[in-house]
Amino acid sequence: MKIVVLVKQVPDSGVERTLRVDDNTVDRGSAGNVINEMDEYAIEEALRLREAHGGEVTLLTMGPEKAAESIRKALSMGPDGAVHVLDDALPGSCAPATSKVLAAALTTLEPDLVLCGSESTDGRVQVIPHMLAERLGIAALTGARKLTVDADAVTIERQTEEGYEVIRAATPAIVSVWDTINEPRYPSFKGIKAAKKKPVRTLSLADLGIAADEVGTAGATSEVVSHSRRPPRSGGAKITDEGDGGVRLVEFLATEKFV
Amino acid sequence: MDFTFDEEQREFRAVLRSFVDREIVPVAREWEQEGRYPTQIVAGLKRLGLFGITVPEEYGGLDLGPVPFALVFEELARGWMGIAGILGSHSLSCRMIAQHGTAEQKQRYLPALATGERRTGIGLTEPDAGTDLQGIRTTARRDGDHYIVTGTKMWITNARHADPLPCLVKTDPHATPAHRGMSVLLVDAGTPGFTVTKDIPKLGYKGTESCEVVLDDARVPVENLLGGAEGRGMQQVLSALEWGRVNIAARSVGIAQRAYDEALAYSRQRMAFNRPISDFQAVQLKLASVATTLQAARLMAYWAADAVARGRADAETGMAKIFCSEVALEAAIEAMKVHGGYGYSTEYEVERLYRDAILMSIGEGTNDVLRTVVAKSLVRGQARVG
Ligand SMILES: Cc1cc2nc3c(=O)[nH]c(=O)nc-3n(C[C@H](O)[C@H](O)[C@H](O)COP(=O)(O)OP(=O)(O)OC[C@H]3O[C@@H](n4cnc5c(N)ncnc54)[C@H](O)[C@@H]3O)c2cc1C
Questions:
Q1: Would you call B12 and A189 a contact, using CB atoms and an 8 Å cutoff?
Q2: I need a labelling partner for A42 at 20 to 30 A (CA). Which of A51, A157, A224, A255 fits?
Q3: Active-site residue B364, yes or no?
Q4: ipTM of the complex as predicted
Q5: Do B19 and A193 touch (CB under 8 A)?
């Protein structure tokens, strides 16, 4: 089975992250950059599928030169190789443009299964799997907390607020996973050493037959026009118990829909 | 002058740190008090590949240099020094077998030792001989294609899990000098006459067992003589010493780092006289002293590791082991003082650091004996300072 895992480098969510003042895009220069956390679960799931069914796992990243560090780190967990879509025209790409680029790269890779995280901790738009499915004419199964594959179909348990739904689709398909699906492994020392020798292929927009003005800030279908900091937390409600404290507390919780 | 780790070393350290923080730190205090064997942690060490750090790559190991080797022990000891003990004598013996074993011995043992499927330790010390290894009494008498081995080994760490356990023996008890008659035998677990007779109760270094081992007419096949020639045992054992001292120096840095981390964190949250105790100059002096000596110890440990990577480093590794072990103990004591009464409580981490730190000045050559080694090297002009 040929599995491609979408991996994104994002600013470390453990430290303060900001948008750039000049163009309102995510500031990728200031914070340390890491592999999008949810993608590690997708990689782990891919590796488990490879262990059970054989085949190969390829990572696919679209990102700046610096993303190469994250690709190496992700490779140290055990995937066989990676494809890095790298082009000066790409920064500032909106979700539809990103999906166009990733779809073109996926077409060249011909995977049986595409795995990705359910969201990235920087953009949080959660639309990429759907857009890719649309562009590639394959099914999108999103929000998996469990995944199984058999002959030519994939089945997931889709996590919902109340429980889960079982969804099945023919492969090739794209599946996004939640962090409930597994416990990602630590890269082994051998994995770290081996990652240096694994093939990482770089593709440009020209390689994918996409024009520069279809992507990046030039081709963006949406634009963040302004941003401001979240206002500091306000004091919150204080309930002084005058005999009816319990009742008022419950009322508060009920109006705020906590209970 | 470049005091930075290379990219691969930084990646190793990052993985180790998250492993230690997630798998060891949360359980260390409870498990060590229960006297529980850290089976799950050992499984994690296996998955990381750490049992193979000193095994050559051709046998499935990682063949780490002394610097990343030191990193492993520093980080593990920061979590729980006893865990570093599980890998310590294992790694030194793997290295000894890789360096001195016959092709057949390497093929037989190293692949399984690299994965941790087999584990090992090292049997040198005896009831009547520790520092003075030439004074050991265990003898191995040739009987056809076997050696008949008789003697007792003391303090053998990992003895219950070791297979094989390399033991230093006298194949010729009458040789002069004595070391010419000394050899290392790879004693397989289950060898008739080989018994682990007890776990020696100890102040710290828990999690791993340190045992009394009895060899009572144990029959060891001749093909288990390390390197296939008698009389080389002392030299084989001594060749592991420099790495052993780097190992202890690095563990000491790990203990000192943890002591510092605990002291700093506690001093920021403990209030007295309406302010955090970290506001008091007396507490600040302790923090600054520990941070300073800790950082000096770290530089010395990695300087010694780097010296081993470059060649003979008897004096450098001796100095680092002495200095770092003393810094670890001092750091643990200072951290206890910062904790006040709670430092003396088994509900906090620092009392374990204190109990574990003391061993660092005893194991791999007592600090006093190492001072004599360093001094000899200086007086002879083999090592130079300045
Ligand atoms: C927890 C623990 C784990 C251990 N694990 C192992 C293991 O896995 N394998 C193993 O083989 N051993 C192991 N040891 C043994 C350890 O290596 C010895 O304890 C150490 O070498 C000291 O030997 P000794 O205890 O016999 O002390 P001795 O050699 O009797 O020393 C007693 C004192 O005399 C001093 N002294 C001795 N000779 C001299 C000299 N020439 N000049 C100046 N001072 C001297 C020493 O510094 C010390 O202060 C372990 C010990 C401990 C405590």
A1: yes
A2: A224
A3: yes
A4: 0.84
A5: no
